[in-house]
Give the backbone structure.
Amino acid sequence: MSEPATDADRAVVAVQLGRPPRGTRGVAYRCPCGLPAVVETAPRLADGTPFPTLYYLTCPRAVAACSRLESSGLMRQMNARLAEDPELAAQYQAAHQDYLARREALDEVPEIAGVSAGGMPGRVKCLHALLAHALAVGPGVNPFGDEVRELIGEWWAEGRCVEVTPEGAPESPAPDPTGGDATSG
């Protein structure tokens, strides 16, 4: 599902994050505007560090939208539903297994075996990670990621989060109207 990241993609992601990206293998999801929104990262970084986050949300507008949902108390509600609904818990467990299988298909890293992202499978901890997973693999895999996707709406509707030259290089970040931090995910 991921496509190779170009130098232009890496430059855009660096501007989105405010730092050079680490371990980027590819672009797992592009916003409708064409820019990377989720990158696929290597399970082990170049320096040997294990990196459990296979799918990393980079679009500052999507990051800000997730942060607003987290601040609203949504994760507390999701955790309560997870504890009360065995069918939802089974779907979330399957999402965890999907995440692990996709990462292990790239590289087996014993230090992070069984560790996925976003709190899976026992709790909801990071909406950014759950949305990144849902965007990267498509609907119907991560139930909470799918919910977040529906709740944040069309984060790209105000235009690109980073302006890009005709050659594909970023010019400067577009202002984030929320003041959100694009470094989480």
Summary: The two ends are 19 Å apart (CA to CA). The CA atoms of residues 163 and 171 lie 5 Å apart.
